[in-house]
């Protein structure tokens, strides 16, 4: 009986409305472990795949979860779901634009098209 209470069924909702999971995680699993699981299960056909856990944010019960917290610490308010499966929202950060491309875009925007007669 205590084994059931020490685990949590979690599915991860992606920005397009599709899900990864559900999968069972122990209460001792860290949020960083959840993110690693998301990266390993990321659908191959989806664009904007995260490269590492820093590219991901998990949101549950309206709060962004910190990597060093455990599932058990984040559990408050999560267990009262009717089907026993908790849904966490996944946000993927866009990679920063590299400096060379940004400078080229700025140059293109700053050009003037004047004609002197």
UniProtKB/TrEMBL annotation:
May serve as docking site to facilitate the association of other proteins to the plasma membrane. Keywords: Cell membrane, Lipoprotein, Membrane, Methylation, Palmitate, Prenylation. This is Membrane-anchored ubiquitin-fold protein. It comes from Helianthus annuus (Common sunflower). PANTHER family: UBIQUITIN-LIKE PROTEIN 3 HCG-1 PROTEIN, UBIQUITIN-RELATED DOMAIN-CONTAINING PROTEIN-RELATED. Transmembrane segments: none annotated. InterPro entries: MUB (IPR017000), Ubiquitin-like_dom (IPR000626), Ubiquitin-like_domsf (IPR029071), UBL3-like (IPR040015), UBL3-like_ubiquitin_dom (IPR039540). SUPFAM superfamilies: Ubiquitin-like. It is a lipid-anchor. GO terms for cellular component: plasma membrane. The lineage of its organism: Eukaryota, Viridiplantae, Streptophyta, Embryophyta, Tracheophyta. Coiled coil: none annotated.
